[in-house]
Amino acid sequence: MTNIIKNKTPKYNFGVFCLLLNYNIVILQYNNFFMGASKADFFTKEQNDLAVLFKAMSHPARIAIIQYLLSVDSCICGDIVNELPLAQPTVSQHLKELKNAEIIKGNIEGTSICYCLNPDTIKLLESYFGQISNKLNTKCC
Question: Does Transcription show up as a keyword for this record (predicted)?
Answer without folding.
Answer: yes
